[in-house]
Amino acid sequence: MNLEQLRGFVAVAEKGHFTRAAEALHIAQPSLSRQIATLENEVGGDLFHRARGNITLTSAGETLLPRARRMLADAEAIRVEMAELAGLQRGRVRLGATPTLCVSLVAEAMTAFHPAHPGIELQLTEGGSRLLIERLAGGELDMALITLSEGLAVSEAAIVRTPLLTEELVVISTASAPPIADGPIDLRRLSALPSIAFAESYDLRAATDAAFRSAGVAPSTVIEGAEMDAVLRFVERGLGVAVVPATVLVDRPSLRAARLVDPQLTRTISLAHRSDVTPTRAAAAMRDVLVDTAAALAAAEPETLRIVR
Fold this sequence. Notes:
The chain has 11 helices and 13 strands. By secondary structure, the chain is α/β, with parallel strands linked by helices. The protein folds into 2 domains: 3-86, Winged helix-like DNA-binding domain superfamily/Winged helix DNA-binding domain (Arc Repressor Mutant, subunit A, Orthogonal Bundle); 91-307, D-Maltodextrin-Binding Protein, domain 2 (3-Layer(aba) Sandwich). A hairpin with a 2-residue loop joins strand 1 (48-51) and strand 2. The protein starts with a helix and ends with a strand. The relative contact order is 0.14.
């Protein structure tokens, strides 16, 4: 039993005539007759009473007709859904990103992606780079934006990292107060300012702590263990300064930034995916938007953001 046979059967039942049904289906009547004969052979009985000029359903035909219509309707629904997926009208992307990238690169990318593909559902997982790599390897994510330092290798062989951006870490302060420095600021001067420290689970916290240790100074921490949104809010309120990636400053006029020098701290943003999984069309479209958004951010902030060639 196949869909063509069912279409032929329904057409004959509705038209009450083989010739008119064949014309409606744009096939030759002998072909239609063979389809019906094959279908009757498969179901094990006649589906029509055949009288000259009068075609009516048998009991078997009456039983099959509503089921055939449902099967054809289901097949059409599947065809439409597959066409929508192919046209990126529906679908799902499981994206992982670090907290700092959720409030910057991901937010900017979704501003472009969602209006173009409103039917695509984004499932966002926020976490540290190591956790995201684990979930990506376990098949829980389609891709992940991570910020592992170059010295840290990804142990899962199936994970591929594509560097997108190199960005500086900058010192932010409230825009409602005078600038903390006339130009760049070094770690020694920074250590004398009240600072807001991220939670220890943040990759960013580990990088800044290591930099202070290397410089032989300690930060003057006034609040410790905050998440990204809280850190930004505390700084906006003038409670202290914080070291954050440059991309966080996008569209935040309530904050101002000073470049960090001696040493200059940077991080590389990479897009990770599994090499052994073919991306869906929705995932591929999201990847393209993330790459384009990274390029646009770098073009807007050439001093602190650089595309990785």
